[in-house]
Amino acid sequence: MYQPVHFRKAKKIWFMGRYVDWPRAFVHSMSHALHYGNSVFEGIRAYPTAAGPAVFRLPEHIDRLLLSARTIKMTPPYDREQIIEAVLKTLRLNKLRSAYIRPLFFYSYGNLGLVPKFSPVELLIGAWEWGAYLGDKTEKGVTTYIVPWRRIHYSQLDMRAKLGGMYVLSTINGLVAREHGCDEAIFLNLEGRVAEGPGENIFIVKKGVLQTNALTESILEGINRTSLLEIAADRGIPTRVAPIRLKDLFNADEAFFSGTAVEVAPIVQVTDGSNPKKPGKTRTIGSGRRGEITQLLAETFRDAVCGKLPEYEKWLTYVDKKAGRRSASPRRKGRSST
C-alpha cells in the first residue's frame, strides 16, 4: 500500500479509463518503462478562481503530451479530447480546487527487449495539491549551481518532447547542486551557453529588456515561458529570444526560472561549477533580491491563472463546465516574441 504522504488530497488516480484508489499498486514491476525510461508526461496546474478551479493551458499541454508520444513512437490509446476530459474528471473526483496534474503515457508490461514489441502503451493521470516546487525560495530567491555536465543537445533528440528517460540527467544534477549547498542546478549546452534548469526555463533582465533563449539552445519550449513572453509584451516590457552567454547571466540585473512546477522563481545567486578542475566562483545576480520586472511578471501571471485578468481568460479551462467560458477543443497558441 502506498500512502499519499507527499501527495496532499490525492484520493484517486485515473488509469486506462477507470479510477484506482491512490494507495493501490497497479503497475507491474516488469513494465518496460520502469526499466528503460520510455515514458512521456506533462506537468499541468489547476488554480482556484471565482468560478471554481481552472486548468492553465490544458489543450496546449495535451498537444505537447501527444507530440511527446509521437516522438517516442507510441500509438496513444486515447485521443486529445478524451485525455482532456479525463483530466477534468480526475480533478472533480478528487475535489481539488488547486492541483498539480501529471498525465503519463508509458510502455507497460509485455516484454523486456529494448524494442517494446509486446508492451502496450498505457495512460495514467494523477492529481494532488502541491505548492511551488522550490517552496519559499519562490519569494526569497534561488541559489543556483552551474553543473559541469552539459544538457542533451537539440541535434540528438526533439527537445520539444518531455521524455521520461531524459530526466535522469535532471535528477543527477539537481542532487549535485544540493550537494554544493545550492537550491537548484543550471545546465550549459554543448556550445557552452546557458541552457536551462533541470525542469525550468531561464530568463534574464538587462536594462529593462527581458530575454530568454530558443529551442536551438537545447531547451524545452516551456508553456509558461511562452505565456510570460506574451504577458511581458502586453505590459510594454521589451522581449528578446536569443542565446544567453555565461557573462550575460552573471551581469544580469535580474534572472528567474519559469515552469509549471516552479512557476516564477527569482535567481539571486549563481555558483559556476562548470569546470570541475577549478573552484566554483559565486556571483550575486543584480541586487540579490527579486527584481521589479520579475515581481511584475510573477504577480501578473498569478492574477492571470486565477482568472482575475479577462485578457488571459483564453488560457483557462474551467473544471466546472457550467462556470467555464473556454472550450478545451480549439487549439490556441501564444503570441511569439523575438
Structure explained in plain terms:
Helix content is 24%, strand content 23%. The protein has 338 residues and is an alpha+beta fold. The chain folds into 2 domains: 12-128, Aminotransferase class 4, branched-chain amino acid transferase, N-terminal domain (D-amino Acid Aminotransferase, Chain A, domain 1), CATH 3.30.470.10; 137-304, D-amino Acid Aminotransferase, subunit A, domain 2 (D-amino Acid Aminotransferase, Chain A, domain 2), CATH 3.20.10.10. Strands 1, 2, 3, 4, 5, 6, 7 and 16 form an 8-stranded antiparallel sheet that branches. Strands 8, 9, 10, 11, 12, 13, 14 and 15 form an 8-stranded mixed sheet that branches. The longest helix is centred in the first third of the chain and has 15 residues, at 80-94. The radius of gyration is 20 Å and the shape is globular. It starts with 11 loop residues before the first strand and ends in a 20-residue tail after the last strand.
Helix and strand arrangement:
Blueprint: E1 12-15, E2 18-21, H1 32-36, E3 39-41, E4 44-47, E5 54-56, H2 58-71, H3 80-94, E6 99-107, E7 121-128, H4 137-140, E8 142-146, H5 168-179, E9 184-186, E10 201-206, E11 209-212, H6 223-234, E12 239-241, H7 246-250, E13 254-259, E14 263-272, E15 281-284, H8 292-305, E16 316-318
Parallel strand pairs: 8-9, 8-14, 11-12
Antiparallel strand pairs: 1-2, 1-7, 3-6, 4-5, 4-6, 5-16, 6-7, 10-11, 10-13, 13-14, 14-15
